Structure formats: C-alpha cells, structure tokens
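Researcher: Good morning. I'm working through a list of sequences from a screen, and I'd like to move beyond sequence-only analysis. For each chain I'm collecting a predicted structure so we can compare shapes side by side. This is the next one on the list. No need for commentary yet; just the structure.
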Amino acid sequence: MTPATDEPSAPDQRRTGLDDPRALDILTTEHWSLLSARTLGYQEMFGRTTIFIGVLSGTIIALALLAQVTRFGYETLTFAAVLFAVSLFIGLATFVRCAAINLEDTRWVVGMSLLRRAYLQIVPELEPFFVASHEPSVESRTLGYGSPQTFGNLANSLTTTSSVVAALNSVLAGTLASDLGALVGLALTPTLAIGTCVSLVSAVLHVLYASRFRRRHVPATRSSQRVA
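Model: Good morning. Structure tokens for this chain:
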C-alpha cells in the first residue's frame, strides 16, 4: 500500500497595493501616528507659551516690587533692561519654535488628507460621510500653507498662539528700547517715539519671518504630494 501524495498547492497570489488586507491596518497606524504628532506639537507649543508668559509675569512683578524700593530710580531702569532682554530672548525662541510647530502641524494635516484619499480608494462609498477634505491641495490652501501674507489671512493669523507671542515680543522690544533710551538720558517724548517705532518694526519682522518660513519649507510637502 503506497502512501497518498498531497496535491500541489496553488501558488500564493498575494495582493498588492490597497487590495492587500494589511493596507487598512498600516493606514490606520499611520493615521494615529499623525494624530499623536499633532497632539505633541500642541502640547509643546502651549507649554512653551506658558513658560514665556510665566517669565514675563514674574518680570513685571519683580519690577513692581523693585520700583517701590528705588522709586523708579536708575537701579530700576538697569534691572528692567536686563529682565526685559532675558524675557525677549525667551519670547523670540518661543515664537521661532511655534512657527516650526505650525509648519509641522500643517504637514500632518495634509498627510491625513492623503490617508483619507486612500480610505476612499478602498471604499469609495464612504465619500459622502467624510467631513474633512481628502485633497491635500485643498487642505494646503485652507490652512494658508506657503501662501504669501495678505491682509485677508493676516486677520486670521492674529488669532493664533504665535501671533500672541509675536505681539508680546513686539511690546517687549519697544519697552526695552524705551528703557535704554531713558538710561542714556533721553527725554520722555523721544523715548516713547523710539519704543513705538521699535514695536512696530518688531511686529513686521515677526510677520515676515513666519511668512518666509512657510514658503521656504513648502517643497518638502509638495514633493510628498507628488509621490502620493
């Protein structure tokens, strides 16, 4: 009696692309990774902003206590110049990092729109139930990613955390300039004029930096869209 021989099995025809049953798990994992990255970015931005405002509040309280002792004398102006310079440095570092976090957040949003496009390719019938856009170009235009700064999107930009930090930095820069003017013996009117001019120039520089920062980093995201 001869042993029975097994019939040759059919060749393993593994699916590729979005037809692969593993594709949905991979896309879902990537989606959650982008959501986690956005959450970490927001937490870092709020943490840095909280530290900056805490330092600024401590500076004001310290100067108020010192002014009562020195009666707004030369010592108060000198100490104020040092504290304002330190606070301004922290504020500038916070603003630069906030600009980078905003850029990263926009990239994650565009990435999630690419994932939604993949979901719709798997199940096209889901398109009426998607609230967010699944076109990266639409997401980029909606978020103003890489677009030149205009009065229209400037009004929207003034409501962001970065704009709050920029406003505080501009006030700090003007205050520091006025304090230095008072230290060298300038009169009240030129001191206030210098402070106002420095504040306005600082505000313009903050806006230009944020706008140019976005434009300089646009190619990375566009290249990812071409790959998609």
